[in-house]
Amino acid sequence: MSSFDRSPVLAVLRELARTPPALPRRPVPFAVPLAAFVAVAAVLAGWAPRLLGDPDTLWHVRFGLSILDSGRLPQVDSWSWTMAGAPWIAKEWLSQVLFALAFRLAGWSGVVILAIATLAAAMAVLTHEAAARLGAIGAAVVFYVVGMLIAGHVLARPHLLAWLPMVVWTVALTRAAEAPRAPSALLLPVMVIWANLHGSFLLGLALVPVFAVEAVLRGEPAARRRLAFGWTAFLAASLTASLIHPYGLDALRAAVSVLRLGAGTASIGEWAPTDFSTIGPMEMILLGGIAALGWFGARLAPVRLATALGLAHMALAHMRHLPVFGLVGAVVLVEPVARALGATGLGLRSWRP
Question: Which residues lie closer than 8 Å to 333 by C-beta, 6 or more apart?
Answer without folding.
Answer: 300, 304, 308
